[in-house]
Amino acid sequence: MERIKKCSVSELVSQKKETVLGNQALIEFWKKYLPTLEIPKINLDVLVESVIKELDKITQLTKDKSQNILEPVDTKAIDSFINLQQDFNHRIEAYNSQIDGWNEEINGLKKKQPDLNKLKQEFKKLEIQQKRFFPEVAKICDTYKTILENVESKKQLQQEKQVQLTLSVSKKLVNYGEKINKYLEKFGTSLKLEVDPKPTYIGRSKEPSIKYSLLMDEYKIDLEKYALGEGDKNSLAFAFFLAKLSLDDQISDKIVVFDDPVSSLDRTRRNRTVEYIKELATKAKQVIVLSHNDNFIFELYEKLKGLGIEHNTLKIDNGEIKEWDVKEEMKLPYFATIAKLESFLEKKRKLSPKDAKELIRIVLENALELRYFKYFEKLGDKYWLKTMITTLRNEKKCRFRYPDREEVLQELDSLCDFSASSHHGNIGYPYREEEKEKEIESYVDSTLKMIYEVI
Predict the structure, then answer these.
(1) N or C: which end of the chain has fewer CB within 10 A?
(2) What integer pLDDT is reported at residue 349 of this predicted model?
(3) Tens of pLDDT along 229-269?
(4) Of 113, 132, 161, which closes a domain?
């Protein structure tokens, strides 16, 4: 509602009556929400009529005065008009004051009403909620609710299973570490594994990752600074492999392949390897062993034949895979000589150092003859280790398993010179001292490595 301002008589006549009528209409509207609202009482018609009447008097008085300016006039009409104007203004102020009060109440009521945009949003929400109970929508919502409940149930089950998996994996990790250390101990190494029992998962992988430290004589090894020897590397890798197999619940369905498992292993570890393969042969579906070490195959053959396990032996001869009669070949003196030299190092049989020294040349001649016989055919029957080495040195196409060909030939020369005096006497070296047993053991060990790993 508009507020009536203090104004001139002409304004009262032309405008304010319309304003009062507009306010009356608004008051009627708001009375529905504010029952205490009442229309202010003001009779503008009477007031305007009185003002116009007095104004006419003043106008006439002014006209009379203008015609006779020296004639005094009665100013009671002016005083009466002033009093009437003041009364009129008081009434207007009272009216405006009452209107201001109603405006405050109306504004207060408006502030209590919710925002129209919010009402629209709530209305849309109510419409959506209403649709929720339509039969076709209710069915979809119920299905969705069931799916959510199932998802939550599965999540809970997954969390429970994850806890169980972590505990199970942790237990297996500890068991795995113990198995590895057991094999390392039996291999006679000074290595030991320290396994973190808490599994970790890298990225989004669902496969647990193992964290472990490697100890040597109880001291932790920094593999970024230090390197293990080939024997220790192979023993460690083999221990990991055997431990994994020993914990496999489905080993009876597995085919296990060993590729040269005794490479760089000493005799103690080789004997242990034979024992483990023998044990595994009774558990796995099939075991396949590949090796360059004939004597190792012979030992394994002897261990397995008493178990009653069906087995087959094959060998590569000039690029062809053929049946191999191990039992017949084991009768060759060459392999018996190897067995004697190994027993000498293991101190299991009575073989004198002198006899062991003599066997070095014999076993090397046999080994070279077996592997490189085609280069010696032109020599006839009159050749020995030295001439064999010379022949191989001249045959540039001859290749050994060890890549440095000249280094192999030099080592063969050294072994030949050491053992030759046992066969040809010491005439060329009349004052040569007899070798000590440790020195002979060293040459025997080098000879066996030459046969198993080098030539």
Answers:
(1) N
(2) 62
(3) 887 888 888 899 999 998 898 999 999 999 888 776 677 78
(4) 113
Q: Is 277 within the bounds of a domain?
A: no
Domain membership of residue 338 (yes or no) is: no
**Residue 329 CB neighbour total at 10 angstroms:** 16
Give me the number of domains the chain comprises.
2
pTM of the full structure: 0.49
Crossing angle for the helix pair 267-281 and 333-346, to the nearest 10 degrees: 110
What is the C-alpha to C-alpha distance for residues 348 and 448, in angstroms, rounded to an integer? 17
Q: How far apart are CA 391 and CA 198, in angstroms?
A: 61
Query: pLDDT tens for residues 131-143?
Result: 777 888 888 888 9
Specify if 355 maps to a domain: no
Four-residue CA torsion sign, 333, 338, 341, 342 = negative
